Amino acid sequence: MVNEGPSGSSDNQCSFVASDLEKRIRESSRMSDPARSEESSPTPLCSSEGSLSPVCYTPDPHVLLGMEAHAKCIAAELDVLMRDLRGSLHGMSDLTREYANCYLTSISTSCDSVDAAIKSTYAMLAKTEELMGVLKSKDKLQQQIKQLKRLVDMFESHFVNSLA
């Protein structure tokens, strides 16, 4: 069994030619039909007279042409299938990349929003502490106002008593 190298190439498609195709076909037909007996041997198409050489068969050219046509059809369909698969995989890869970028953007935006909320919370706490400090000084002011009112009331009662 000797395989010859590529015989032709078009559109990234290589064709291989087997130099012993007839022999392979003959052997495969013998292996696939073991029920044939030696008495019902096929009719030889060529043989050497007076010698015990093997019988030569010539394959039907229509069968070979049909096989070649089917092989080309299958190769073309496989090529289309591979192109479709490549296109689908590229599309899936693009979608995956877009989804990853979208996810990254949403995570980044969420982190920025949480960071802004934390900063606002700390700013509000600082203002609350400042307000508490102002309210504590209000208590002092309230005490001072109460003392002034008490002094004014005492002065008024002392002044009214001295006039009477």
Number of domains: 2
User: Quick one: overall form?
Assistant: rod-shaped
How many strand segments? 2
Radius of gyration: 52 Å
Strand-residue fraction? 5-15%
- Estimate percent helicity: over 70%
Q: pLDDT average, as an integer?
A: 81
| Main beta-sheet strand count, sense and barrel state | 2 strands, antiparallel
Question: How far is it from the N-terminal to the C-terminal residue, by CA?
Answer: 146 Å
Please work out how many helical segments DSSP would assign: 2
- Going across the biggest sheet, name each strand in turn: 1-2
Q: List the secondary-structure elements in sequence, H or E.
A: EEHH
Pfam family, one: BORCS6
Protein name: BORCS6 domain-containing protein
Keywords: Coiled coil
Coiled coil: 131-158
Describe the fold and architecture:
This protein is mostly helical. It has two domains: 1-59, no CATH class; 60-139. Helix content is 70%, strand content 9%. It is built from two helices and two strands, in the order ββαα. The chain has a two-stranded antiparallel ribbon. The protein is rod-shaped, with a radius of gyration of 52 Å. The N and C termini lie far apart (146 Å). 0% of the residues are buried. The model is unreliable at 36-45 (pLDDT under 50).
